[in-house]
Amino acid sequence: MAEQNLESKLKNLLKQEKIQLWHPPFTDDNLPGEQAMKELAERYAPLLCLPASEVGGALESIRAQAVKRGKGNKTFRETNVATLELLLPRDSKKDPKAKTYLETRLDTLAQEVIDRVGQEHGLKHIKLILNGKTLAADQVLADQGVKNHSKVMVLRVSDAELKRQMTEEEEKRTNQSESIQRTKKGFQILSERDGSEDPDTVPFLEIADQKGNPLKIPHKEKKALILAMGFHEKGRALMKKKQYDNALCHLLQADQQFSVLRSALLSSVDNYAVLQLDIVWCYRALEALSCLDDGKSRLQKAEDCFLQCYGAQQQRLLMIKGNTGREEVLFLRLYLLQSLLSYIEGNDCQARQQLSKVESLYGRLCLDSEKMTQLMEMGFTEREARLGLRACQGDLQEASIHISNRRQEREELQQRERQKRRRRMEAISTLAELGFSRRDAGRALHHADGDVDKAYAILVSSSQAAQATNNNTEEALSPDRLQQLLYLGFERDSSEAALRLTGGDVQAATQLLLDNQGYLSPELLSTSTPSTSPPSTSTPSTSSSPSCEEPSTSSASPEDSELVNEVLEDISHHEEDYLDLTLEEESELIATMKAYLNREAGHTA
Q1: What's the pLDDT tens digit per position in 290-326?
Q2: Residue 288 Ramachandran class (φ > 0 left, ψ -120 to 50 alpha, else beta)
Q3: Which domains occur in the chain, in start order?
Q4: Which pLDDT tens digit goes with each residue over 327-366?
Q5: How high is the pLDDT of residue 531?
Q6: At what angle do helices 584-604 and 348-365 cross, to 10 degrees?
Q7: Which residues, including other chains, have CB under 8 Å from residue 499's CB and lie 6 or more apart?
Q8: What single DSSP character describes residue 517?
């Protein structure tokens, strides 16, 4: 990282002075202009407080890379042959500082490149890594993101390890893909449910804001939001297990779903900003420094979103929640990642400024263990103690009152939800007594926003439409045809259903009944009965944090129930789980950043 820092600083100086090292007097016939390079190194050395020899070496590295890149660009334009930089194992390089290149077409299978590298550098079993991901041997380079000038890492593996890794990689890819598909399907099932079913028998996911109040958005956006938040929750669950590669796959899926939403909705909730932070945090954990540009863009999106959601001085957040202490952990992580990226870019001054803000926040957010213990002895959970102390700037008494108030608010919200469900079930029973099915009554109530009279009007209207359809089947159910089936010994209900299904064809109806031993299954009977459901178009309500009702049984298929229960396991039952950071990883990165910046400061002292 220090070499990257020095090269970044030199590139900035060269850019400021508009110096192009690949042109004379610094390069002549692709060879270095020694005198010009020496003078440049001696001029830059005092500015960087480093020996001229070290600066000269870095300048030559930049010059050689630029010349190589220029030749590679020309070759690629003329022949479509790309130049790749190979990062070989240390013990296989004659000169540790020399760079190794390989020319190849990008429509070549990765296996061919693996074979070439192995032969040319005497490596028996190897794999190629691009941006932290292993290149699949049976796929072409271009399809895996390899471009002209890509840096590809070469890793050596033993025979036994090769076999194990091939098995593991295959299982990993399969499991990762299956995990994403199962997560998507599970949340798709939940996103299609409109709350009309009995909440005691069918799982239903509701989206609510920080105060538990639903926000109404169009149905398409509701589905996208549920999928986005579902993938995000799954990704966060994997991050907690340190499975950062798998977590990143799910987080990027969440990002894709968020792209469907309107910018106005994204600016009203902080989920999108938190997602951007989580993605860059995974980049850091995976040491994917090649994702620098994408990381910068994502952090900027996060900062802009926080500004819109919370207000310039977090005044909106203060109005909604009454304090801002808990959300400060998000800003700590934001500034810390910005500091890291600034350092990698060679901007030490900006890195120090951001790190100073980080340390100030860390000082406020790092909690007194004794106070944590005291709150937990009062019966509060570790999470409640941590969030409470941060919300009250470490004041023990205020934190105790705050946590108690939050518990009361949550209990009141749950009571309101229980009352709402009870009223809904009573309304469904009322409509059912009037002759409508409970399922149709529940759907009508949902479309009528709980108004029984409106729901009744919807059901009557639907029934009239169904009756018009029934008139077309009256001929099929003529007494003569029905009597023929009854004479053969079949039950009236099954006979009527069979005639409806066959359009009044007595012979076909008879065969249908014989095939089913005179009894038609509920599935066939339901097909023959006109539906009285209202139209499915609606405007369901949604918002920024998911909460779920988990029933003991489900009327859905066993496969659907399994998927739904699986994805619900990853949804935290605490709406502020994303703010409950222990700051252990952040502390380690702060120490690393201080060590690097102090090293640079030592050079300038």
Answers
A1: 667 788 899 999 998 888 888 766 666 666 665 666 7
A2: beta
A3: 1-78 (no CATH), 80-157 (3.10.20.90), 367-448 (no CATH)
A4: 888 999 999 999 999 998 888 999 999 999 999 999 888 8
A5: 32
A6: 140
A7: 476, 477, 481, 482, 485, 505, 506, 509
A8: T
